[in-house]
Design brief:
By secondary structure, this protein is an alpha/beta fold. The chain is 35% helix and 32% strand. It has a four-stranded mixed β-sheet with strand order 1-2-3-4, covered by helices on one side. The chain is globular and about 30 Å long.
Length: 74
């Protein structure tokens, strides 16, 4: 998996695949203040993007890809 679940945020790193989408969705829904760190995210499957767009967690660190950062409101 390319997501590390930490105390204050989920760190998306490298290539985040479709297999990560469901676990991320569940984790974000369980958090009082859901947040993601995408500073080291290189690729993002569209299913994961849909989870992020639907649940709108706080983006602690935006991804390097400018268009993706704009989509996420980072």
């Amino acid at each position: 998996m390319s997501i590390r679940y930490l105390k204050k945020h989920a760190a998306l790193e490298g290539a985040v695949s479709v297999e990560d989408a469901e676990a991320l969705s569940v984790w974000l829904r369980e958090q009082a203040k859901p947040a993601v760190h995408m500073g080291k995210c290189e690729q993002l499957h569209s299913a994961v993007l849909q989870v992020l767009l639907a649940l709108r967690p706080k983006v602690v660190a935006p991804p390097a890809d400018r268009r993706l950062a704009e989509l996420l409101g980072a």
